[in-house]
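Researcher: Watch the backbone:
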Amino acid sequence: MLPNPTVSMLVAVCLLVSVPARAGPESFTAEELIEGFTNTVFGLEYRAWSWQPYLVKKYVKPVRFRIHNLASRNRAPAVEAFLAELPRKIPTLDARLAEAGTEANFNIYVVDRADYLNVVRREIYGDQEADAPGRCLVRVESGRKGITGSSAVIVSDEGEFLFRRCLVEEILQGLGPMNDDPKLTHSVFNDTSRHSRFTAFDQILLNMLYDPRVRPGMDRSELEPLLPLIARDAKHRVQ
C-alpha cells in the first residue's frame, strides 16, 4: 500500500553512444523479455523521486495527450505521428490526443534547448529553483490506482536524432517502464544505445506492461509467476 495517494517520479535522457541493432520479435527469448521487463518496470532511474520504485506503474484510465509546441520549429506533426502508432502497437492501451476543451493527463512540451530549464521549472514543477537533469525528461505521478499524470519535455533543436530519441523514450517511459538498463541492447531504455524508434523489443515490454493481468502496485514477487505467459502473449501481439 502506498502511504500517500500520489508520488512523483522522474526519468531523464543523459547519454547516447553505442551502435543500434535491429531485431524482430521472434529473436527474443522469454528469459530476455522477462529480464528486460523486470529491469525497466521494477526500478526508477532517479530513485529519490519515489518512496518505493519497485512497484508496477501504468495507466488504467485512458491516456489523453496534449502537445505544447514551444519550439521555433513546429514539431507537432512528428509528435502526432508517433502518438498515432501507440494504439496499433499496444492494442490494450487506450491512448490518443485529447480533444479541444478536454483535460489531458499526458502533456508533451517541445522546446528549444535555450528554453529547456525555464519550461521544466515552470510547467513541470512550478518551482524556479528545481533541477532539470538530462537532455530531456519525463515526470510521472503515480498512486495506488495507477499513473494519474505524466509530463514530458522534448528538445527540438539539437538534431533529428536527439529529438526522435527523446520523443520515443520519454513518452514510453511516461507510460510506466521508468528504469534504464545498459544491458538492453535492443531498447531505448538504455542511455548507451542509439535507438531512436519504437523497437520490437520495447513493443513487447509495453505489451507486457499493459496486459490486463498486470495491475498497478504489484511487486515483482506477485507478478513473477505470470511473466512467462505474459511474455509469450505479448510477443504474439507484436508484428
